[in-house]
Each structure stands twice: as structure tokens, then as C-alpha cells.
Design goal:
By secondary structure, this protein is an alpha/beta fold. The protein has helices at 15-24, 26-30, 57-73, 85-88, 95-107, 121-135, 142-146, 153-164, 171-179, 202-210, 227-240, 242-247, 249-255, 271-292, 297-300, 320-331, 337-347, and strands spanning 3-7, 34-35, 78-82, 112-118, 187-191, 316-318, 356-359.
């Protein structure tokens, strides 16, 4: 019987790397019995199965049947479907339940495995807030948060908790919430931390689980935004709104590339949030031991880089010229990257091209 492995996230946990890898090795894997379906798969970008989320319920059955025919036509008895949108869709949409129901109807509940990947809690929380600033995540309302008393990472976590009754970094709660959409399907949990996997990349771990040979993972990563760029996106959302900020976020990222990081209580885990993340990590350690039979020590440890952040406050203050530059980029009717760089040359102090002042 054909088995389906439905990779649903978590978001910010190597999904893009996994999708790029299985796309680039699709032909080879098909010869080994694994189909990464072209049906309902994007033809560029992340090469994921996000198009499934846009289908009306009555079209899901035919789409799943088409996936089954594609796999059968290539002699594959294993199918991998991947989109972190299944996790994002838990808020305000019933599509996750509908897709799983369609897969179950065609392949049988015990043959549809839900696959969830996780990274260390501390880096996950910071990455999730960065993604929220870049393009939204977990259904937190940008305008509502930005005009609240705390629009930083702590406020983001607090708004998610108010909306959903649990913390987004509580993996056990997340898994149990997802289990409600797939109550009888097997759920497989994996750590993305290579130190938990004998030094293996998560793509190699999944290749072994799916019974295919491992090839070199392609060099792929999402655009990295510097801390300065993220702080300026936050300013822009507050001053100019979500739509304009997202339209021109890549310009801000290009103007302020990555440099040396400084602690910022707006972007980084510290204070009371640090304690809450550590408590969630400790609870999840026990949950994973009960459900996986493995400790995943590096998934649940506090990374050394975070150890001194517990009592940190404040952070760098953005220079006025950075805020002025961002405002002019956002207000311009049209602007190119070259035009934005010229504005930066005009506004940035010649003797001090940096973006931030001393801590405050």
C-alpha cells in the first residue's frame, strides 16, 4: 500500500531546505520509489505544495487522486507532500483538516504520516518574530500588535497566547492542536539540530526515513535580514502600514546588510520571556521522551549564546538618519534599489555609516 508523508512544518524549521532538496532530487528519488508530486506543487520559489491550500473543498479529492495516479505512474509506493502552510492554516481556515481527510480517504489513515520538524526553542522564537516582521506568522494581527503597548518579541508572544490559549513555542501544545486535525494518523517528530542526529542534516535524516539515497543538499537559505533591518521594518509597519512595508522590505534588507549582532529586547529572548521559553522547553523535553523515546538534548538545551540574556534589557537605538531613510523609501511613489542607495549616501554621516547608536 502506498504511504504518504505529509510534512507540515513547523514554520522556520528547515521547511525551505527540505522542499528545495526533495525538488532537486525528485527524478533520482522516483527511481527509488519516492514521489515528490508535481501535482499541486509550485513551479518556482520553494517548490512546495502550497497550491493545495487554495483549492475549494470539492476539488481536494480529485487533486489527491491525481497525486496518487502520478505516483503510481512512476512506480512509487511512497509520497512526500510538503508545506508549512498546513500549520499556518490552523488559524482561521479548515483546509488542513480537509486535506488530511482527502488523503485519508484515498490512502487510509494509518498510511498517512504527519511529519513535524522542530528546532531549538530559543532560536525558533527569535526566528518566528523576525518572520512576523518580514511577512507575518501564526495569525498575529500586525496593526493590532504594532499599536499596542508592547510590539516587540514579548508582545508578539503575548498576543499569540491571548488569541490561542497557549504559547507558540510550546511544542507539545502545538502538536496536540495539530493532532486534533489528524486524530488517528501517525505523527512523527524530528529535531532539526544536527547534533541530535549524529551530525546529519535533516534532509539526510528524512532521506533515510523515506528509504531513498542521500545526495548533497543544495545550498539554499531564505534571505537573512539584519537586526537593523528588522527594527526598521517594525518602525515602518507602525508608520506606513503592513502592505507598503512588505512591498519594499527587500530594499530595507539591501540597505542594511547583516553585521555584528547586539542584544535588543525588541528582537531577542530575554527577561520574563526567557523564563517562559525555558519552562516550555523543559516541558517539551518530557513530552518528546514519552512520544519519541529519544531525548533530543540539543533541541531542549539553552544554547551558550543565549545564556547571558536572561537579565538583559534595552538594546541599540536606531540612528535618526536610518529612520528618515526608511520613511523616504516607504513614502516614495516609486523607488529602485539604486535610488534607495543614493538616498542612503545622502543621509548617512560620512564618518559613521553604521545604523545604531549606544544602548538605551
Amino acid at each position: 500500500m502506498t504511504s504518504v508523508h505529509l510534512h507540515v512544518g513547523m514554520p522556520k524549521c528547515a521547511s525551505s531546505t527540505v522542499q528545495s532538496y526533495f525538488h532537486s532530487h525528485d527524478a533520482r528519488h522516483r527511481s527509488e520509489g519516492l514521489c515528490y508530486p508535481q501535482t499541486c506543487r509550485t513551479t518556482g520559489g520553494y517548490f512546495n505544495h502550497l497550491p493545495l491550500h487554495s483549492l475549494p473543498p470539492e476539488e481536494l479529492g480529485p487533486a489527491v487522486d491525481a497525486i496518487a495516479r502520478e505516483a503510481e505512474g512512476d512506480g512509487c509506493d511512497r509520497i512526500l507532500v510538503s508545506s508549512e502552510g498546513f500549520t499556518n492554516a490552523l488559524w482561521g481556515s479548515s483546509i488542513t483538516t480537509a486535506v488530511i481527510a482527502a488523503l485519508n480517504a484515498t490512502f487510509g489513515e494509518q498510511n498517512v504520516h504527519v511529519v513535524m520538524l522542530f528546532r531549538n526553542h530559543f532560536s525558533f522564537v527569535e526566528s518566528a518574530y523576525a518572520q512576523f516582521l518580514k511577512g507575518g506568522l501564526f495569525g498575529v494581527h500586525p496593526a493590532r500588535l504594532m499599536h499596542s503597548g508592547d510590539s516587540g518579541i514579548s508582545g508578539y508572544a503575548a498576543q499569540f497566547r491571548r488569541n490561542n490559549g497557549f504559547d507558540f513555542f510550546s511544542y507539545a501544545d502545538f502538536i496536540e492542536r495539530f493532532r486534533g486535525h489528524a486524530p488517528r494518523n501517525p505523527i512523527e517528530l524530528y529535531s532539526c539540530e544536527s547534533a541530535d542526529n549524529d551530525g546529519k542534516d535533516i534532509t539526510e535524516v528524512l532521506s533515510g526515513r523515506l528509504g531513498v539515497s542521500y545526495g548533497q543538499a543544495p545550498a539554499f537559505s531564505n534571505t537573512r535580514f539584519s537586526d537593523t533591518a528588522l527594527l526598521l521594518l517594525r518602525h515602518s509597519i507602525q508608520a506606513h502600514g503592513v502592505t507598503r512595508t512588505r512591498e519594499r522590505r527587500e530594499i530595507i534588507a539591501g540597505l542594511f546588510p547583516s553585521g555584528e549582532k547586539e542584544f535588543s529586547e525588541i528582537l531577542h529572548v530575554g527577561g520574563p520571556l526567557f523564563d517562559r521559553v525555558q519552562e516550555a522547553s523543559d516541558r517539551d523535553r518530557g513530552y518528546f521522551q514519552r512520544h519519541c523515546g529519544r531525548t533530543h538534548e540539543h533541541l531542549f538545551d539553552i544554547p551558550p549564546a543565549y545564556m547571558d540574556r536572561r537579565d538583559r534589557r534595552g538594546g541599540p537605538v536606531l540612528a535618526d538618519w536610518c529612520l528618515q531613510l526608511t520613511d523616504r523609501v516607504m513614502k516614495a511613489e516609486k523607488i529602485s534599489m539604486a535610488g534607495a542607495r543614493k538616498l542612503k549616501e545622502d543621509l548617512a554621516p560620512a564618518e559613521s555609516p553604521g545604523a545604531a547608536g549606544p544602548e538605551g
